[in-house]
Design goal:
Blueprint (H helix, E strand, L loop, with lengths): L2 H24 L5 H25 L3 H4 L3 H24 L5 H11 L4 H13 L3 H26 L27 H10 L1 H15 L8 H8 L1 H15 L7 H24 L4 H11 L5 H9 L4 H30 L3
Length: about 325
């Protein structure tokens, strides 16, 4: 396995497109308002289409073939997600809404964008690779994103007048307190929530998505990653790049805590060695861009979240070879 080739194919495009967005913002070719429009396009159309397509093609029998993999993925990823949420709220004294965006970033791997790009060159394109990526994608997109939006409650989140603000304080008008059921309904209204849930329902009841419709969905879905990364660069250009303990903490959760716990729990419950290694590598991926998109859309936790994404993506070039070696070593121990 050539790690240099993997980095060139999977990570370099992220840096180049983000840098392009950053320079476009610095030269005023695009503004923060443009970035929010890009994020609205991605969040309401491109990302839901991409999530739906990535999940709906999974096979129901394949999904339940390895219940151990499924259960461990759900328990560990959701636990790390909630740890990121409570840590941000309690340790760093952020609001519930800011903590929700933090969890969407620090507690979710970017499986949809980098899953195949990283795992396929290492382990090959086969049924097991597709199974691990499909299960992690379902956990991230159909479980943690709805939880994050429930905690954020988008319909209760006014957008500040100042584009540079990272919280909902200041020019934002306070919204009335809503009940938990109302927040849950608001989350379900978001396309980025109901689209992956609908895809899971299709899988469970055995509805096969017509292949003839793939090109229609793919046309908008393919705009997801490129536009999201470009918009993140534009957003970053309007912010002062941070490097502090909170960003380091977010990076440690994403690059070390999640894959480490997946490896420990998977080994304790005797997961099949190759599936365990792939699950650890999936958990070690940088933060999901959906968290940055959602944070930018509502102008919440933008500066710290974008800085956390940039640092995690950069450090992944070193942590990826480490987890490949260490996960293989532990998974094959007897």
């Amino acid at each position: 396995m050539e790690f240099g080739q993997m980095i060139l194919n999977a990570l370099l495009p992220i840096f180049v497109i983000m840098l392009l967005g950053y320079l476009s913002g610095k030269t005023n070719a695009f503004t923060g308002d443009n970035a929010r429009s890009f994020n609205k396009l991605v969040l309401n159309y491109a990302l839901p289409a991409a999530l739906f397509l990535s999940i709906v093609k999974a096979d129901r029998h394949l999904l339940f073939e390895d219940l151990k993999l499924l259960i461990i993925s759900i328990v560990v990823i959701v636990a790390c997600f909630m740890w990121a949420f409570f840590g941000c709220e309690k340790f760093f004294r952020h609001t519930k809404k800011e903590a929700a965006v933090c969890a969407l970033i620090a507690g979710s791997p970017t499986i949809g964008f980098l899953g195949f790009a990283v795992l396929e060159p290492i382990y090959g394109f086969n049924t097991s690779t597709g199974l691990v990526i499909a299960i992690v994608a379902i956990v991230v997109n159909a479980i943690t994103i709805p939880i994050g939006l429930y905690l954020l409650d988008p319909d209760d989140t006014p957008v500040p007048a100042s584009a540079g603000s990272t919280t909902t304080t200041g020019a934002a008008v306070p919204a009335k307190k809503k009940s938990g059921s109302s927040a849950f309904i608001n989350a379900l209204k978001q396309p980025v929530v109901w689209a992956p849930i609908l895809a899971v329902i299709f899988i469970l009841i055995g509805i096969r998505f017509p292949k003839a419709l793939d090109p229609t969905f793919n046309l908008i879905a393919k705009a997801n990653a490129g536009v999201a990364v470009f918009a993140a660069g534009v957003t970053l250009s309007a912010q002062k790049v941070e490097f502090n303990w909170e960003i380091c903490y977010n990076t440690l959760i994403k690059l070390f805590l999640m894959p480490g716990v997946l490896l420990l729990v998977g080994k304790l419950f005797h997961m099949e060695a190759t599936n365990l290694q792939m699950l650890v590598m999936a958990g070690a991926l940088p933060p999901a861009f959906s968290g940055i998109i959602i944070g930018s859309r509502y102008n919440i936790y933008v500066r710290t979240g974008t800085s956390s994404l940039a640092l995690s993506t950069f450090l992944f070039m070193g942590t990826c070879p480490f987890w490949y070696w260490f996960a293989g070593l532990v998974a094959n121990m007897h």
